[in-house]
Design goal:
Layout lengths: L1 H10 L6 H28 L15 H21 L11 H25 L1 H15 L6 H26 L6
Helix pairs in contact: 2-3, 4-5, 5-6
Length: 171
């Protein structure tokens, strides 16, 4: 039994035929997503737009960027399924997944809090929590000077930018 678990740990394979079946399904999924991303990118580039803002005002900008990311990630999935190792992807995945989960929860909490406590307070609290959670240093000087001060400055700058310059009504 230990020999089997050692083989799984070293090779990542769970038994005869399993890795081949997983890599084939990964390749197929990557190819399907690649085709969808290519079609979406083609359509987003061909979207008509009017005005003086050029490409930055195009309605296809955001779908085009998302499609480009889909193309990149699906190509990486297809390469990985064929046994190519990507050195940059060998980071500690568990740490990145944990950070991504925390970020997701904070953003959902921020969106939920906006109607009740308002834009300024919610933005300040979210930025403050982000800086406290995602820093290596957690002494009082950092909390007071950097986390509190930078959160206040960023909140004021964002409020001024959106409310006064872009004239977007904020909650």
């Amino acid at each position: 039994m230990q020999e089997k678990s050692r083989e799984v740990a070293e090779t990542g394979r769970h038994g005869p035929g399993t890795a081949k079946r997983d890599s084939a399904s990964d390749f197929f999924a990557g190819a399907a997503i690649f085709l969808i991303g290519a079609y979406a990118l083609y359509e987003s580039v061909n979207m008509p737009f009017s005005g003086d803002s050029g490409v930055w005002g195009s309605p296809g900008l955001t779908p085009g960027l998302i499609s480009a990311v889909l193309l990149l990630l699906s190509a990486m999935l297809m390469f990985r399924s064929r046994g190519f190792a990507i050195k940059a992807m060998s980071l500690a995945i568990h740490t990145e997944i944990r950070r991504g989960g925390i970020t997701f929860v904070l953003i959902v909490a921020y969106i939920a809090a906006l109607p009740w406590i308002g834009y300024v307070t919610a933005t300040f609290v979210m930025l403050f929590i982000f800086q406290i959670l995602f820093t290596a240093r957690r002494n009082w000087r950092f909390v007071i000077v950097w986390a509190f001060g930078l959160s206040a400055i960023l909140t004021a700058a964002l409020y001024y930018l959106f409310a006064e310059i872009f004239l977007i009504p904020l909650p």
